[in-house]
Model the fold of this input.
Amino acid sequence: MKQSGRRSLGRFGDPGFAAIEETGPGPSDASRAQLFTPFLTTNRNSQSSCCALIRENLFHYAEAPRSSGSTLKPFIYGLGMEVKGYTAATLLTDTGLALDAHAGAYTFKNYDESFLGPILYRNALGNSRNIPAAQVLQAVGIDVAYRHLCDLGLIRVRENPARYGLGMSIGGLYVTLADLVRAYGILA
Done:
């Protein structure tokens, strides 16, 4: 049955329903059926098999290393409180921060490319400001922060912390979603 450029196998809502976009010449009906038969058979035999397939794919997604972005900032700010004695009322500066890196000079920027000037510790974390996070990481020490993140299980393969530098505070370190969930459970 053909409707508006789509070929439908079954009815929407039926276990085993699948829709295939038609984009011009492609596989024959026989090869399409062969391609989707395992999917349809699995669905018709057991909805739990389909759910298991989805869970398996979500598991793979949760285990894939990705840029941490701003997700490590709470750990870095917490470490600043623990190691340096910072409090929610500690004043940080949200101004330009330029560093000499291995590949040359690097200037930290905030996502919105603006600076807020003097900012309270709690507001810097709450607003996910990049520059204050890098300053806290610098004050705590890259090695100390790296070991802390290792202890939390966020780093699976240990390397020289200098490889990441202050970029750890803004996504330079790759972590998995599963590891982040476990670490946030510890933080809570």
Remarks:
- The first strand starts at residue 2 and ends at 3.
- The chain has a mean pLDDT of 75.
